[in-house]
Amino acid sequence: MVSNTIDADDGVVAADGVIQLAFDRYLLPATITRQSYVVLDSTNTPLDNAAIKTLYDPVARTVTIVGPGGPGAAWLTPDQSYKLVLLVPRDPAVDIGGFRAIDRAPLAEGQKLEFVFRAGEPRRQQTFEPAVDFCADVLPIFFTKCSGPLCHGSSERAAAGLVLGTSEGVRVTARGRVAQGSNTAASATRPESTPSLFGANMEIVKPGDPGSSWLTYKLELARPPVVDAGPAIDVVCTPPEGALAIPAPAAAFTPLAPRILHPSAAERERTILSDYVAGREMPYPYPPESYVPPPPTAGNPAPSAYELTPLDFQERERIRIWIARGAEIRECGGCGVADPATDAGAGGS
Question: Are residues 21 and 135 in the same domain?
């Protein structure tokens, strides 16, 4: 663990707020449970399990501890003292308890394990994450970055049978379906709960659980963008008549705990994550140094560097938030690259 909001906020947690812990490793999802920590009140009595929820963000590598009602609902008593204790398994080789990295490594030796804090007045902040809409924030990313004719476009040649270019394609081929690259358990099609093994029969998109969604880690395998590729391509979706209007894109997301922006190269691509997530990073491939985009043609603008780069942090977080909130899919209608000359200002309202 590299930081937390208790220390960052001088030991005060709003009575209706959250506690966030930031890590420099990807965590084993099965360890993001109440068996990995305990919150004690001023009499050293543990808070009831039902009074706390634990949320995992594998993109920012944070664990958030919050009351059962979520942010904005009080779960602590103002002016009371509390203690957060991180648990360490007695036998790291066998026991599951305690936060673990995906290779089952426990917390580093010498890690601070106890954090005393005081509950402050409620802040009535309803959420710490922006609202994300599938048609405004998620499908445009899939359409732009993932739906090439030889990748995951709407065709019979979609790689691994995964279609990401349309709402129906995502619904039928991604949500709740076991990823081909994770077929390492006894059944090829049934998601399995394997607490001691990361990635076995993991669903491509597991609604409500981005930490157990294969798509999350395929995107995480890609190296982070190192140069500014310019403004994003403006993708416009036109919902069918009678459908909900498409809102403006989500606001930028910033984790609460001070953090490391990107995991180390060793953690992401060379030794750790790539050992557990089969296949190449996505989107793939990247353009070579000598890449020269083809000249544009009528109705087919030349691809920019933006189209051929990995997803940036905000894009990956929008997909993560969408999955965490249930991976709702609705019909977005036809999507396409906006023509600046005729669609100025388009993008939904």
Answer: no
Q: Measure the CA–CA gap between 325 and 132, rounded to whole angstroms.
A: 9
Q: Are 21 and 108 in the same domain?
A: yes
pLDDT greater than 80 at residue 296:
no
Which domain range does residue 86 map to?
A: 3-120
Residue 235: per-residue pLDDT: 80
Q: Running DSSP on this structure, what letter comes out for residue 175?
A: B
CA pair distance 156, 163, nearest whole angstrom? 9
CB of 181 closer than 8 Å to CB of 277: yes
Domains in the chain, number = 2
Contacts 24+ apart (CB under 8 A), 224-229: 224/261, 224/262, 224/310, 224/312, 224/313, 225/309, 225/310, 225/312, 229/304, 229/305, 229/306, 229/309
Q: Which residues have C-beta within 8 Å of that of residue 61, sequence separation ≥ 6?
A: 22, 23, 24, 25, 26, 27, 259, 260, 263
Per-residue tokens: 7: 């220390």
Nearest to 264 by CA among 103, 26, 63: 26
Instruction: Tell me, yes or no, if the pTM score tops 0.90.
Output: no
Say if residue 138 is in the same domain as residue 48: no
What does the radius of gyration of the chain's CA atoms come to, in whole angstroms? 22
Q: Is 125 a member of any domain? A: no
Residue 84 has pLDDT above 60, yes or no: yes
Q: 148 and 100, same structural domain?
A: no
Top mean pLDDT of 2-6, 94-98, 127-131, 334-338 is at 2-6
How much is the average pLDDT of 270-277? 81
Q: Which conformational region is residue 94 in: left (phi greater than 0), alpha (psi within -120 to 50 degrees), or beta?
A: alpha
Residue 299 sits in the same domain as residue 181: yes
Same domain, 174 and 222: yes
- Comparing C-alpha atoms, which of 233, 225, 220, 226 is closest to residue 293? 233
Coil, strand, or helix at residue 16? coil
Q: What is the largest CA-CA distance in the chain?
A: 72
3-state DSSP call for residue 18?
strand
Report in angstroms the alpha-carbon separations of 294 from 40, 287, 288, 337.
62, 12, 14, 17
What is the mean predicted confidence (pLDDT) over 76-80?
A: 96
